Amino acid sequence: MEYEERLLEYGRKTDEALRGCFSNKPAHCGLFEAMEYSLMAGGKRLRPALTLECCRVCGGEMEKAIPFACAVELIHTYSLIHDDLPAMDNDDFRRGKPTNHRVFGEAGAILAGDALQTAAFEVMLRPESGRGLPPERVIAAANTLAKAAGAEGMAGGQSMDVACEGRGLTITDVKQIHRLKTGAMIRASAEMGCIIGGGGEKELAALGRYAEKIGLAFQIRDDMLDVEGNVETLGKTAGSDRANEKITFVTLLGLEECRRQVDQCTLEAKDALRELPEAGFLCWLADKLAKRNK
Amino acid sequence: MEYEERLLEYGRKTDEALRGCFSNKPAHCGLFEAMEYSLMAGGKRLRPALTLECCRVCGGEMEKAIPFACAVELIHTYSLIHDDLPAMDNDDFRRGKPTNHRVFGEAGAILAGDALQTAAFEVMLRPESGRGLPPERVIAAANTLAKAAGAEGMAGGQSMDVACEGRGLTITDVKQIHRLKTGAMIRASAEMGCIIGGGGEKELAALGRYAEKIGLAFQIRDDMLDVEGNVETLGKTAGSDRANEKITFVTLLGLEECRRQVDQCTLEAKDALRELPEAGFLCWLADKLAKRNK
């Protein structure tokens, strides 16, 4: 369980740093409280773990990537809050808890998301985050995150998802939506770690390809779990896709073909790492995600 | 009219660069269209002008500050879109045009705001923006904007404003809300220009103080115009504050005392610049803002 322990350690390091972002903050009528509510709601910290491990694999000190790992999680959390809003997916539960707007109201949730996005950039760009790092790496890593989160990445994917609701989608459409909506951020998590760790073009390409493949596998598995899973393990309502008549990988491909594609993507992810030394943890993580039940 | 011409030139430079941000973009189900709709809705480009002029005053090349001037306007535009949402101020018109959510729907407006915020950081951190600049300046300027836009600045102020609606507010509360909600960004606009232009501690403090004072004067004047103005010159509904029973500088101080405080702040703004050479334009701008009718 060496790798399992390392994954938990990355999660603890991220949690600790994230908590530090919000200590001793003034209570602006509850804004920080709303931000912290979703940030500390028990996320798996998968993206930060990728950032920290990719930094290490590229020969960098893991600790130096912590602010960047936090930034990824801050952006991820903001996106979940906004996606859950009544005007978007209108979800009542997330990770087994009432969604942000159910607790803090719509205005509170919009602002908490907004401020979490800003905090992601603030954390990466504060002077102490760059200590001991070439400033060019800080800029390149932060820009990588900005590109992945914005209109040509995550926000663009969410926009397509909302706009295409109720329309007939092909497998190509669904792959494109997820490549932008979730894939871009997972890829950026790995790339940022590589940049901070001092990786070159070869490492950046390999880790980027690895992350893209596990990102796709992750999303296909997510759609499978919505059919197979139950509310206790998922922390959200299982079967919600079908109830919403949502077009997913499962409705387009069927469970069996989904399983096959998850396995194929996982193989390709591991194959992308074949020229990198020290890729054991990342290979283990790809397998773990392919088999997850929640 | 030399200064008037310079102000227009700054606006043109900003518009041109902002248009460049969105040329040749894929049509992700209308996201870029929604972003551009509000970004190009005829804003006064006051904040970018401050960034560009403060860079010049500190001895920098104005052109180098353009991506940072764009970033300020991108953040400002995102905040207007989100502030207008039904869950916030529920405004139907902005700058004489239907608000973003009236045209693109609530989900579209939330996402357009989100993606505009991300674009602000992407623009500052892209490789070409840093060309010919020490990377430390890029990081410091981008961090200044992040701090001003986030939970301890603009978003915090908006949160206080929303949460305090309908409560009894003192003049101290109203000043604090505006210092965060609008003042922080105006101050950051000036400071970013100073940082990019290579200004030192003395310039940063003087320009920061100047911007804080014109920011306060600007807001008091805004409240006065809501009472004095009419819909044709304002492009929004005059008297909306009174209709919403909003506590403003005018309801707390009266028009006459507001006028006096605008003049006093403007004097203090100009006084802050007394040790800076080349402050003519900024002094002229302070006077112009104090006298504005829209």
UniProtKB/TrEMBL annotation, chains A, B:
Entry EC no(s): 2.5.1.10
Pfam families: polyprenyl_synt (PF00348)
Catalytic activity, as annotated: isopentenyl diphosphate + (2E)-geranyl diphosphate = (2E,6E)-farnesyl diphosphate + diphosphate
Domain of life per record: Bacteria
PROSITE patterns the record matches: POLYPRENYL_SYNTHASE_1 (PS00723), POLYPRENYL_SYNTHASE_2 (PS00444)
Protein family membership: Belongs to the FPP/GGPP synthase family.
Protein name listed in UniProt: Farnesyl diphosphate synthase
